[in-house]
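[09:14] KT: can someone run the structure on this one? pasting the chain below
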Amino acid sequence: MFFLLILMNLLFSQEQKSEQWMNHSVEFKANCYQVYSNASKMLDSAIKDRMWSAIPSQMEDQMVWDKKLAIILDLDETVIDNIGYYDFLRSKDTSHTSENWDIWVSKAEATAIVGAVEFIKKAEAKGIEIFYITNRACKQLDSVKCPQQESTLENLKKIGLKSDDYHLLLKDEYKSWTSDKGIRRQMLTEQYRILMLVGDDFNDFYDNAVNLEQANKEDALYKNIKYFGERWFIIPNPNYGTWQNFNK
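[09:31] RB: done, structure tokens below
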């Protein structure tokens, strides 16, 4: 058995190992469930404390108590599981490209991350609006301005979640909606008290994280680490993300 494990390590690339871990390990599923279970336990406290917010700048807003309640989640590898994308690539004997990704998105076949649907439904039952800020990009196709939006809403419906174009904020819907999610988050704070942020990348929590050098990113993490597990909840993703820019 020991030698079999060594052989598997030699045969599989690090990317393949990460994919296999997310696809097959009970540890990954347990991690996801644990994140959403802990987030669920904080819902009542977040609602009751009328100055509670997951956005540091909003904590200084004396009028935050009077705003509607919302939670912001990322989509890919946070709410929906795209492990099937890799099977799709293998079936076509090809690799990742933006074109192949768009085809996969159009199929609306991603499954649910363990614990996500139950958490979202529980939050909605308490009167909390759910917003999805995703870096799935709007790309016009023929006369359709943003087919990715329709496909993503269809995918959410398939896993048991209802949403609409108001609550789904895609990259490039507007010129200022770039890979940095900060502008979209700040826009929502004008009307909503943001109770929690859920994602799989530091960019889902911290403004301009996509452009930070590694040392600055770590500094930002430790200045804000107290929010994790209470207002910020992160799903493990060893497969891809801004963490891959660690050589910057």
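[09:33] KT: thanks! Confidence is low (pLDDT under 50) at residues 2-8.
[09:34] RB: yep, looked fine to me
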